[in-house]
Structure formats: C-alpha cells, structure tokens
Amino acid sequence: MTAPYVPSRFAYQRRPSTEVRIGDSVIVGGTNPLVVQSMCTTTTQDIAATVKQSIQLAEAGCELVRITAPAVADAAALGPIRQQFSAAGFAHIPLCADIHFMPSAALEAIEHVEKVRINPGNFADKKRFATHDYTDADYAEELERIHERFSPLVLRAQELGRALRIGTNHGSLSDRIMSHYGDSPAGMVESAMEFINIAEDHNFHDIIISMKSSNPKVMVQAYRLLSARLYDHGHNYPLHLGVTEAGDGDDGRVKSAAGIGTLLEDGIGDTVRVSLTEDPVAEIPAAHDLIKRYAQPPYTQNSTITLSENIDPFQWKRRQSHPVELANGPQTCNAGGALLPLVCIPEVHADKTQEPPADLLINANNLRIITAGESNNNPCDLLLLDVTENTTNEDILRSINALPNLCMVGINAYGTLGAVRAYRFLAAALHAADDTHPICIALPHSGDVMQLASEAGALFIDGIGDAIYLPQAQDAHGLAFTVLQAVKARVTRTDYVACPSCGRTLFDLMEVTAGIKEQTDHLNGVTIAIMGCVVNGPGEMADADFGYVGSGPGKITLYRGQEAVVKNIPQTEARARLIELIKEHGMWKDPV
Predict the structure, then answer these.
(1) What are the Cα distances from residue 354, in Å, to 33, 105, 362, 474?
(2) Which single residue of 30, 133, 187, 325 has CA 20 to 30 Å from 15?
C-alpha cells in the first residue's frame, strides 16, 4: 500500500522539504517563498538575443532563467551569457542549463551556470519506443552504465557548489523504464529515483525534482507518488511544478492552474513554471497569479475531520453517484451517474432571446442554501451547504440525511477549510452515509480564474464532481467548459498539446500553433499535438490523435498517435498534409 503523500487531505500544511541553494541569492524549499521560473526561447548560441530575453524575464519577475544547451557549443555559450547577464545587473538571478541527450554538454554547462537540469529518460538511455524483456541482470547492468555516465556531473556539481534538477517527463521515459513500469506515473517516479540514488551514492543532496506531463491528471498522480516515496525514502527534496505542453491563451493557463494548483492546494511545491506557447515573459504574471495566495495561505492548519475518504489520490476514478433530473426552464436535463459533468450557469448570464442552453439554468427557484446541520424541507435542484472549519462530522451528516432525492449538493461557503478540503469533506460525508447524491462543484465567491481553475481542477482530478457552477467568473460558461476540458472530464472542442518553445524549437511555434488552430478549432473531441522538436514530442503525444513535430530545419514529421506516418516533409506543405491526415482517419468535419 502506498504511503500517504500529505499528513491530511482535510487540512492545509506545506510539504516539508530540504533547502537547496541556487547561486548566492535563491533558496528553494523549506519555508522559503515559491520561486517563479521560465525558459528562454532564443537560440542559445545567439548570445545577445539570449541575454536580452533573460533580462526581459528578470525584469518581469522571473527568479530563475532556464536556457537549453542541446550541444557542447550551446553549453559553452552559457559562459558569456552568464557574464553579460551579470554585468547587466542580474548576478542575483541564477541560470539553469537544460540538458537532454548529451552528458558532455552537461559537463560543459555546469562550469558556467548555477543549476543544470537533466532528463533521466534520455540523459543516459535510448528512447526508440521499443519493448525489451530485461532480466534482473540486464537491468542491473543498465543501472551501472547510468551510474558511470551520471556520476561525473554529480561530482563536478559537488565541487563547484551547483544544484541539479532531475526532471522526469512523461513523454520521454526510457524504453527500459517503459518495458518495466509502462507509461505510468510509477515509471516516472522510478526514473527519478534511480538518478537520486546515484547522487546520494556520492553524498550529493543539492537536488530538485520535477514530474512533468501534458496531462494534469498524470502530472498530479506522479507528484503525489513521488511525495509519498520521498517521505519513505527519508529525504524530502524540493519539487519544481509544471504542466508541460499546456498550450496558449486561457486553455494553457487553466490547464497549468489545474495541475499546479491541485498540488499547491495540498501544500506540495517549491518552485513553479507556467509553460505557455507564447512569449515567455507572459508566463511570469500567470505564475504569480497562480501562487499569490500561497504566500500566507488562509487555510485551516489542523482539522478535526475524522471521516474516511473513498478516493485513491494516486489513481483516478470518478466518484459514484446516482442520476437526477433537473429543471432547465421549460425543459429538463440530467446530471450524475455515468453522464458527463454538467455546466451550470446563473440566470443573469443566460441569453433571454434564445432557448435555454443545454446546460442547467440556475435561478432562485431551484437553488437553496443552508448551514450544514440544518435540514432542507423544500424540493430543489441544487442545495448548497455553508461548511466551515467549525462544521462537525455530525453537522454535515445531518444535512445529508435530509437531502431531497432528486437534487445535487455542493458548498456555498467554506471558511478557512478552503474549497478543495470542504468538498473532500462533503464527499467523505456522503460516502459515510452511503449516499450517492451527485456533487456540483459550486465556487460562488471568486472571480479569480487561476484560483477557480486550481480548485475546480483539483476536485475533478480527484474524481469529485458531476457538475460545475462558477457564477462570479467572467464568461462563467466558457471557463467551466475550459476547466473540464483541461482535466479531460468533458471534451467539447479541439484539444491542443503545444510546447512552449525553447532554443531547440525548429519553427515559430506561436505562428504555427495559431495557423493550425485557425483551421482545426472546430473539430470536437480531436486532440492535436504541436511540438517544436523530437525531445519530448512523440512521447508527450501519448494522448493526442495527431501530431505536428519539428524534425529538422524546415522539416516536419506528422504523427498518428505515436506513429510517424508522414516523415520530413517541407514545413510549407505540413499544415495541408495534417488536414489530409485527419480526413484520411475519418475525424474531419467541415466548419459550420
């Protein structure tokens, strides 16, 4: 049985982690504030452009700048970049080199910058999407080879006082890990632990760890498993949080908030990056918006809740509920059971000149609010409870036992419990009462998009939620659907997996992404991945139907799932060929 990943899911407590110093001014972990970081999108050997963008990021509030170093020449360019960045007045902002396939580049980079990130999936392993049967002896031999390749970097980092990030990506797990653990959060954790153990063999502990995925559910499960594993391991290294390939615009921000915010709500995380397919400077305010309320979180630190949850936080399963029929103007609609989550909208947002939308229309006649402990004697479609830190198990159970059969239940006020813990309390109370009323995730007191996405995303990732109601949000209807799409609870339009660009990118990601969206954003339920290079591309496209991946200067390879089906075609032809590919597989429809 997996150990708990937090002391309590009903009380907020920041995960205790060890401190790691990066350069002279930045300390990650412990009780230090969350650190915001981003990554340059310039070509690293263009030193002037990279320094200029690093300055722009620092002036926007970025506290650590990451720069790709795909080859030794790129890593060598980090020397003058560091010198010029410091000379411009930013010696206090550490730089991190991003390394994938070349240990030699890592050894060069560690000479110039305060931190080096390596990807254990491709730093010393091959990634060819091949399946092998490894005997115990074979596996041990591979680990010894990895030990030999990683140890020189660890020893040099130790000598120079540098930090290392062991950054596992769901999309680039090695064939060896995939053959043994499958494409799973458990495999992501094991991949990181192998490198952690090597570092510890040399008594090196200046380590930060990340578990990134483009799927917020996978990302959250991996970090939770890692937190539990490190607790047992006895060394709580600080964690860097991010949803990779999140995309752009509201979709990218909401998807990032759903994944990162879920973990921050549990007190997990020491440094964050909101990865957007936009100018990297745009990532900084998004990250600060996401983390601002965790500076001094107004949450209950100790809880008297003793109910048991019927939720596995390491593996998604939707909470069981019974279906109910609800009023919707002159019509009716259904919620709960096996139905997709319903989007509820307040009456004030409805267009009175048209027929009521297919989603529930909330109005004064079908919404009731009571304090937990009271009984509701009137029929209603949605009953909201006022639940606070002082609400007892008996209070909430008393209200549940008096629920009308055909209604949803949610939370109106939640005090210092916070919305996430209040809904966990509600779900646990329903389970204790053997009650299967559908739950509506009602978050009526905030218009903050990042907060709403964090809270609602966390609950749907836990499998809690048959409907969503965000009355204070601007475009509440659209935001609700965006949250559901981000956590794959209800897909209502084209879904995009788009990387944020870096110095490895082989085309203009923002321009290409915008062009592909313009022609495909009407394809309901189709997922398209747009990846700048092959580093994480094929693997991170595990959930995508089609992929558009840079394979060389001016060259694109198109994928169906993880299979390359059209290779190395000119970029000028690639968008039209992508549409042809979608049509060939019967997933195209003409825009209305």
Answers:
(1) 49, 61, 16, 20
(2) 187
Pairwise CA distance, residues 111 & 149, whole Å: 17
Q: How far is CA 491 from the centre of its chain?
A: 17
What are 66's two structure tokens?
A: 């990451």
Neighbours of 570 (CB within 10 A): 10
- CB atoms under 10 Å from CB of 456, counted, come to 33
Contact 481, 492 (CB under 8 A): yes
Kindly indicate the confidence band of residue 591, based on its pLDDT and cuts at 50, 70 and 90.
confident
Query: For the chain, what are the domain ranges?
Result: 20-253+278-288, 324-486, 495-584
What burial letters (b/e) apply to 140-171, b meaning 16+ CB within 10 Å?
A: eebeeebbeebbebbeebbeeebbbbbbbbbb
Residue 123: φ, ψ to 5°:
-70, -40
Tell me how far apart the alpha carbons of residues 498 and 506 are, in angstroms, rounded to a whole number.
14
Do residues 171 and 536 touch, judged by C-beta distance below 8 A? yes
- For the segment 166-217, what is each residue's pLDDT rounded down to a tens digit? 999 887 888 888 888 888 999 999 999 999 999 999 999 999 999 999 899 9
Residue with tokens 């204790």: 432
pLDDT at 566: 92
Domains 20-253+278-288 and 495-584 share a fold: no
Residue 128 pLDDT greater than 90, yes or no:
no
**Cross-strand partners of 298:** none
Contacts of residue 584, Cβ cutoff 8 Å, sequence gap at least 6:
none
Which H helix or E strand runs over 154? helix 136-160
CA distance 454 to 465: 14
Token pair, residue 423, equals: 């809904």
Helix axes 185-201, 216-233, angle to 10 degrees: 40
**What is the CATH number that goes with domain 20-253+278-288?**
3.20.20.20
> Which token pair is 9?
């899911």
Q: Domain 495-584 is classified in which CATH homologous superfamily?
A: Sulfite Reductase Hemoprotein, domain 1 (3.30.413.10)
* Average pLDDT value for residue range 437-444: 95
Nearest to 484 by CA among 328, 342, 279, 319: 342
User: What is the pLDDT at residue 399?
Assistant: 93
Give CA angle at 85 (80, 87), nearest 5°: 95
| Size of the chain, expressed as the number of residues it contains | 592
Q: Tell me how far the alpha carbon of residue 359 is from its chain's centroid.
A: 27
Q: Around Cβ 195, how many Cβ atoms within 10 Å?
A: 24
* Lowest mean pLDDT, pick from 27-41, 363-377, 564-578: 363-377
The pLDDT tens digits of the residues spanning 261-296 come to 999 999 999 999 999 989 999 999 999 999 999 988
Give whole-number Cα distances, 573 to 407, 568, 579, 589, in Å. 53, 11, 11, 20
Give the pair of three-digit tokens for residue 16. 């205790």
For residue 326, CA distances in Å to 320, 444, 477 come to 18, 20, 18
CB 369 within 8 A of CB 357: no
In this predicted model, which residue has the larger pLDDT, 353 or 340? Answer: 340
Question: Is residue 589 pLDDT above 50, yes or no?
Answer: yes
DSSP three-state, residue 390: coil
Provide the token pair at 560.
Answer: 């169906």
The overall average pLDDT reported for the chain is 90
